[in-house]
Amino acid sequence: MTAVLNAKTVNYYPANAGWTNMWTAFDPVRINTDLAKAAALGADTVRVIVFPQTFGYPTPSATYTARLAQFIGLADTNGLDVKLTLFDWWSNYTDIDNSVIWALSVLHPYVDDPRVITVELKNEISPGDATAMAWARQLIPAIRATLPAMPLTLTVDGTSGAPGLTSLKSQLATTPPDYYDFHFYGPSERSLAEIRRAQAAVAPAPLVIGETGLSTVSTSEGEQGAYLARVYRAAQVAGIGSVAPWTFNDFAAGAIPANSSVSTQPAQYKYGLHRTDGTAKFAATVVNGAWTSATTPNSILNLGFEAPTANSPWRQYLPQAGAAAITTDLPRTGLQSARFTGTTRTGSGLPSLLTSPITPVQAGQSWHAEAFARGAAATGITELALSWFDINGAWISQHTSNRLPTGTTTWTLLTVDAVAPAGAAGVQLHLKSGDNTGTVWFDDVALT
């Protein structure tokens, strides 16, 4: 179990062949290339998912079991263990006998095989489905009878969270898995609170994070990297040793089987650490640091505005009232700064640039934020704000800095110090400039 609970696992499909297509269009050369890249990134385990309807049910096809064996061999060649997920895209829960036959047929070659370190019985089983739960209570002991030393796990979907895990654990009380697997796709700035809630739901059983990530279909690659950095840091604080990014590759058009609802969701094509051409996104660098040195530094946040736009996690808030531009016209240090010009306000407040820290928020912590600001014929309000949110995303309160004087000023340090209020699970740092008919620049931000 130690290896499982500390595994540096990556979820994997080829960029051109996701889900069942990986097996029907099996390409060992491409797979080997990808697994070598995963190992170089710092992974030591790869999760692979198999499908009864593709492999053949209830008797798996020799063709597909050979492909699975070849995949496991390729993983081993690249120094990777395997986490094997069964019964994906599966709902025939009344057919228990044939389910057992199929599972044991797939698993039998790996009874004493150290290359396969854990088995996930079913990807994202529904704890609200009584028939599915009855099926799981039969399958777990059946698999254990043949593979008594194999750690078994189950997951619920990424939106069920801790309540789903609570229900899953309750219904498997007589035949519990060896550990539970949490799929986390919630707001990363609140990830520590969500992880601890999930841990409490399954305690005293151990927990891993088997999937987490952010699609770049509508966010920057920089924010994807910061998202994963926050989750890795929160897991470290919570004492969780295994966090698996979803997923290794983006998916090309046509890569996801057309008969799947997943294929109709644009976000599903852009969760990868690598683009479809094989080049690494910023998130790959973040994961490499988390895996190889257990570091997720604040430099990920681009606090000096020097990173390429694609690699910056800064987000616009209320851009309809004025969007910040990253410019080279007046940096305090380095080459770039953030500029607001001609801003207004909305009923929701002042426009801003915002980000959240890598370090997770805990109530009672002391926080400090600072930035230098400079004005040219500035009007209105220019300040920093720390905005606090509870575990459900509800706004609690904010703390604001000293304000930049109006008019034309030199670089002026704005600072805000605060203690995270009771119930705080996340914080956002806002660089605000509203009702400003002139221009304001921000540079050299710090957040600790």
UniProtKB/TrEMBL annotation:
Transmembrane segments: none annotated. Residues 18-243 form the Glycoside hydrolase family domain. Pfam families: Cellulase. Keywords: Glycosidase, Hydrolase. Gene3D superfamilies: Galactose-binding domain-like, Glycosidases. GO terms for biological process: polysaccharide catabolic process. Belongs to the glycosyl hydrolase 5 (cellulase A) family. This is Glycoside hydrolase family 5 domain-containing protein. The lineage of its organism: Bacteria, Bacillati, Actinomycetota, Actinomycetes, Micromonosporales.
